[in-house]
Every structure is written in C-alpha cells, then in structure tokens.
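User: Second chain of the day. Same drill as before.
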Amino acid sequence: VASPVMDLNVDLSQVGTPSVSRQGVVTDKNDAIAGVNKEAQAVYDQAMALEKEGKMNEAQASYQRVLERDPGHVPARQRLARIHVEAGRADEALAVLKPAVAGRDSRSLAQADPNFSAFLAALYQRQEEHWKAVDLYEALLQQDPNRGIWQMGMAISLEKLNEPANALRYYEKALESGALSSRLRTFVQKRVRNLK
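Assistant: Same format as last time:
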C-alpha cells in the first residue's frame, strides 16, 4: 500500500509553533540557565525569520545552534524536523525528534500537542515503523475519534501490519467522517474495495 500521506503537500507550519509560551518566572539559581535560554530564544526568533524568508539552509543551521545552546527547546527541534521532512530526510527528522519524545508515552504526547503527534505518526509511517504509528494514532483518536485523516493513517499502518479487518474498519470510518479531500477519499475507497 503506497500511502498518499507521503505525497501530500501537508501544511506543517504549525509544527514547531509553541502551544504554550516558554517564558516563566526565573529564580536566582536559574539565572545562568535563563541567560542561555534567552540567547537560544533570540537565535530561534532569527531562525523563524530566515525560514519565513525562504532561507531554509540558514534557518536549519540556526535551529541547530538553538539546540546546541538549549537541547530542551522543543519548538526549535520540531521546526528543524519539519525542514528535514520537507527536504525528504525523514530519518534525520526522527533523529532530531527523539530527544523530545524520549520517555513520553503516546497518550501524553497526543494530549500535549495533537498536531505534533500526527506529524510524528506520519514520520513513523514513512520509516515503516508502523507499530509506533498505530500507537500514536490510537492516542490521537481517543481525543478526536472522528478525525478522518487520523483514521486513514491508522488504517494504512494496520494494513502494513497485516491486519486487514482492522484496517478496513478504519478506512470505512475515515470515509464516514466526510472530512477527506477528494484525492484521499478516492484512495480510501480503493483500499476498501481491495480489502473487501
């Protein structure tokens, strides 16, 4: 099954956009860390400006500098991963994201940032890591059981895992959602016909 998700011109502009401000109260003992974080944030802001100007190589280098200064800067990690994906380097994107997801379960990831979680699930699909994709899609669908694109993503991975009955069920749910583009609806209808 060739996934149409790989070929979609997906708007990933929200990936790496912080949902919650990184600003907070800094105590005296954290002043040194705060200085590094302020410096990293300034470089991050420059990287965002470079990206908006279409200077992707320079933006990529700037996001990498942010992570050298502040490895916990998740928005920079996500934006850098997005650049890798758009350049066709999914393996590099996953390598960049691993520290951001280490030790976190799919449910907490999906609750904290559904867009990022869906992005990560699609990356797992691209890398043929379908069990990880299924785990994330399952967590996402617990939050929004009628999201057609997530149902389709779940079905694709289930089909790749040789679970045709479950894949068919999710493909049918994706169609019932009424939320798929005509191109995706055609793809899903074809998969349904092939699985029946």
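The mean pLDDT is 84.

User: Great, on to the next one.
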